[in-house]
Design goal:
By secondary structure, the protein is mainly beta. The protein contains no helices and 11 strands. 0% of the residues lie in helices and 56% in strands. Strands 1, 2, 3, 4, 5, 6, 7, 8, 9, 10 and 11 form an 11-stranded antiparallel β-sheet that branches.
Length: 162
Amino acid sequence: MSLIIPKLTKPFKYIKPSGLYATTLANVAVAIVNDATIDELVFETTASGAGSLILELLFQIPDDFKKFAGKSDDLSLVAVQDAGADNDSTITIDVIDASGADADDDSVNATDLTNAFATYDCAITGGTFAVGDYITIKITVTNPDADDDCRISIPKLKYLPQ
């Protein structure tokens, strides 16, 4: 009897961000810092009053793109509310295709942040994507008062290659 074992390969790849801009900075400042807890660069938000921050990151569809898997971890990031009253800041993640259509499953929608890093992820189940197109990852953090500071990792966006 012989056993044939296929070569192990990664079934997915990651797309790196190619641009960033903040569209709303209502009573919230943002900086990029290194977080020693997770040993990654993160966006650090500092609230001076009730308000929100909207970050938009651009990801360009690579040449070997086939599709998103439609699995819960197509897009993944970690975040924490590291100051202020725990669980009163919220995070919303939207994935927007090149035509402006919402492409995610809305699983992270006004979700409470906790006082320890937690993973927030969502499936990309809709949208139309072609090589060279840009995807926008829109991250909204809402703070109800001035003492809420948060840290958000750079999202990881994975896809199935051709």
